[in-house]
What does this fold into?
Amino acid sequence: MIGGGRGAFIGAVHRIAAAMDQQIELVCGAFSSDPERSRASGSDLFLPPDRCYGTFEEMIKSEARRNERDRMDFVAIVTPNHMHFPPAKMALEYGFHVLSDKPATFNLAQAKKLAALVKQTGLFYGLTHNYTGYPLVKEARAMIRAGNLGKIRKVVVEYPQGWLATRL
It folds into this structure.
């Protein structure tokens, strides 16, 4: 998408995936919906205190005020699904490229607004399908392409998420 740069995360950090090709430097972030936890997470990632933000709104506004050479180049959004649109919209409005985990938005109306904003700003917007980078997924793909598994007749996949089973 951008070919590297100084990125910021909104939400849980997929540090391993981001670091794989050594093209991205994490420079700031808003890592939780709880401002104190967000700042603590940024500190755990060895970010300077003034780059650990309590909210995505605070991060985007603060980064937009920084010198262009020092501020983030793009935002990676890895929040719960219903929270992909608000930070993407705001980042684009403030002049930042966006890389968002799927889905792009929560509904079609948001998707249309986002598409119009991307077109209007001319900024890059990328949508990730994060599980394609997992080693086991890559291995399965290689085995299928090599014909090691024979003719595939049925695929059964589970994605258990225990953290979604408890009402918060």
The longest strand covers residues 5-11. Residues 56 and 87 are 6 Å apart (CA to CA). The beta strands are 5-11, 24-30, 74-78, 97-101, 125-128.
